[in-house]
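Q: I'm writing up a methods section and want to include an example of the input and output format. Could you take the sequence below and give the corresponding predicted structure tokens, formatted cleanly so I can copy it straight into the document?
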Amino acid sequence: MQNSETDTNLATSISRWRTARKIILGSIILAGSMATSAALLQRYAGTNCKAQQQRVAERGYTYSGIGAVIQQRGEFVVVRDVLPGAPADGVLREGMHLVSVDGMYPVSVEDWAAALRGPSGTSVTIEVATRCSGHKFVTLERQLIRVHK
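A: Here is the clean output for your methods example:
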């Protein structure tokens, strides 16, 4: 009788194990389906502000400033490029180090960008440094700048 009771216990354990395995596999499949659905919903129905801003920047934008593209190089902020027809065109050149703006000494590129931009028609005085000609002050009038790509 012990054999038959052991066989019954073994059969019950195997049956329980199979049931548990089916439940776990079903849960994994269900979780995968839900994750896939959520990802698709986010991709197609959600708003990704950063991607939307990137698309706007790729098409172009408008701002009021001097038309100089700046970047951080080590501890300095320098002119990377000047937009044709902008107030900085013919005045600032690539590689010039920006020292001060209206008597202030911005630290980051973001601070420089904020200081160089302003209402159209207002002026801004910038101290720049070059290797050959040293320091000089230039005053530019901000204009509406349209950047198209």
